[in-house]
Amino acid sequence: MGGFSGYNQIQIAEEDQIKTAFFMMWGTFYYRLMPFSLKNVGITYQRAMVTLFRDMMHKEIEVYVDDMIAKSKEEEDHLVNLKLPIRLPQEI
């Protein structure tokens, strides 16, 4: 499972939004949500995923930056474990 669009779901703290400012001929703009193009986006996203899935990591799922792998020892548990990373963010 890839989490590419997840980067755009993380809000930037209001006091830090000014640090993302850029100028165009139409005015000055800044990001409110974390764009994929910022330098530290990878580690920020990784930290968010580890925090979110900390109780499941190394048991039912593995997380590496924007990739998640559901794993199971038994075939019948796999469908349940596959649904866990999808349901948890919706519940929060």
TrEMBL record:
It comes from the Eukaryota. Residues 5-83 form the Reverse transcriptase domain. CDD domains: RT_LTR. It holds the Pfam family RVT_1. SUPFAM superfamilies: DNA/RNA polymerases. This is Reverse transcriptase domain-containing protein. It comes from Punica granatum.
